[in-house]
Amino acid sequence: KELISATNFVPTYEQVQAKYRSVIKEKSYNFLTEDLFNDLRELTGLNPDEALLQEVLDAGHIVRYKELAPLFGLVWTDGIPSDIIQRAYENYFEKKGHLDIGAIKETGERPNPELVQRAYQKIIEQGGEKWMDEVKELWQATGVHPAFTPEQLRPLFEKIFDHNPRHSEFRRHDDIKKLAEIGIKPPLDLVE
Length: 192
Fold this sequence. Notes:
Shape: elongated
Structural class: mainly alpha
Helix content: 55-70%
Number of helices: 12
C-alpha cells in the first residue's frame, strides 16, 4: 500500500511472491527474514502464498519449514504435525538420496522404519569409504536397526578382511567393533 502511494507502481501478485520466495531461499533464518516479510506486507498489502512454504517442505527442509511457518501464520501448540515431518523426510530422501540426520535430531521425530531401511540400502549400494560411520550415525539418530542380507554384507566385509596394508589390524578391529555395536556381524568364514 505504501509502495503504491509513494511511487504509483503497483507490483503484480507474482512479483511480490517472487520477492517472498527470494527471502525464503536465504540460507538461514534470522531477524532480517522476519523484517523483510513484514516490510513486504506493509509495502504491498500482500501476504506470502502458503504454496511458497509448501515448496520448502517439498524440498525436504523440515528445519527451515519450522522456522518459516510462523511467518505464514502457522503455529502448532504441540509442534509440527507428524504427517508433515514424515512427508519432509520422504521428500528429502527422494531428492538427496539420504536422510538429514540434523533434521531428525532437531525435530525429535524418527522417520518411519521403512524409509530408514531404504536409506540403509542406499548407503550399502553406494559403499563409500565411510559407509560404516553413515550406518552407525543413522542407527543412533533413528533407533532402527539395519536389515542387510548376508549377500549384501559379504563384499563389504571382504574389503575389511582383505589384509590390505592400508587397513591396519587396529582399523579392522575398530571397523568390526562399530558394526557389532549395531548388531552387524561378519560372516564366520571370513573371521576364521
